[in-house]
Design a protein that fits this description.
With about 70 residues, the chain is mostly beta strands. The protein has no helices and 7 strands. A hairpin with a 2-residue loop joins strand 3 and strand 4. The mean pLDDT is about 90.
Length: about 70
């Protein structure tokens, strides 16, 4: 299979929520999440759920959330 990288996606979520979803399924442990330009740490700042959503350990402020991932 061919791997595709998705860059600069703004995941879907609501203000004050902890769970955000991606447009496409991602490969496990192949996400990079950024909050206001700072890279977050998988397992410390957020976790992956299934293959289309992430959950933040602490609800982020309604700022810029970007995710890069392999699908």
């Amino acid at each position: 299979s061919i791997d595709f990288e998705v860059l600069y996606e703004m995941p879907t979520g609501y203000v004050g929520c902890v769970r955000y979803t991606t447009i496409y399924p991602f490969k496990p442990r192949r996400t990079s999440v950024y909050l206001n330009g700072q890279k977050l740490i998988l397992g410390l700042d957020y976790v992956e759920n299934e293959t289309t959503s992430i959950t933040f350990m602490i609800p982020p402020e309604p700022d810029s959330i970007i995710i890069d991932y392999e699908r």
